[in-house]
Amino acid sequence: MSRRAAQRSYWLMKSEPECFSFDDLWNAPRRRTGWDGVRNYQVRNFMRDAMHVGDGVLFYHSSAEPPGVAGVARIASAARPDPTQFDPAAEHFDPSSSRDAPTWLEVDVQAVGKLARYVSIDDLRSAPELSEMLVLRRGQRLSVMPVTAHEWGVVLALGGLDARDF
DNA sequence: GCCAACGTTGGC
DNA sequence: GCCAACGTTGGC
Asked: Is A115 helix (H, G, I), strand (E, B) or coil?
């Protein structure tokens, strides 16, 4: 069953490019990967309750020089248990989680478009229409956060893309 | 590398 | 359930 465009949600997802960049996603098999390692309850709840296949994703480079939106992606799967929580060798192993009642979730994210221009955090701050964007808010540390449909369109335009294509 | 912000932990 | 200590995030 298809979802109406009006129900589509948009997200900004942060990754440190030294760890995993948008180009890494673009070059991955089927241009997609499991977004594992989330260990924040609010983000877990976004994945569980509010994300849907087809939602738009602004792929944001944090701890980059400069930080900014590097590409466009989509949510490509429903939420499922994050396998790294069960792996003692994984960086984000969680010994308190069990397979019967997994604490942490992941979703698949798939790259769908390269930006014509990188949209730096200064570019975002300079756009009056983006003044309420959560990623620009002081002290905002969530690695995944919602973006409004309007902000989505403005950011894509700053990146040289037409939101109607995505 | 600094440090403000803020989520989590754990003693009480 | 309070709250101080601690750990992490992420821009600068």
From this structure: strand
A38 touches strand C (CB under 7 A): no
CATH number at residue A57: 3.10.590.10
Strand B contact with A95 (CB < 7 A): no
CA of A45, C1' of B9: distance in angstroms? 21
**What residue numbers bound the domain in which A41 lies?**
3-165
Q: Can you tell me the distance from the alpha carbon of A38 to that of A43, in angstroms, rounded to the nearest whole number?
A: 7
Is strand C within 7 Å of residue A43 (CB)?
no
Query: What positions of strand B are covered by protein, i.e. any atom < 7 Å from a CB?
Result: 4-8
Model-wide pTM > 0.90: yes
Q: What is the pLDDT of residues A81-130, one digit of tens each?
A: 999 999 888 888 888 888 888 999 999 999 999 999 999 999 999 999 99
Number of compact structural domains in chain A = 1
Sequential DSSP letters for A47-75: IIII--TT-EEEEEE-SSSS-EEEEEEEE
* A102: amino acid identity, one letter: P
Closest residue to B6 by CA to C1' distance? Answer: A139
Distance A102 CA to C3 C1' (A): 29
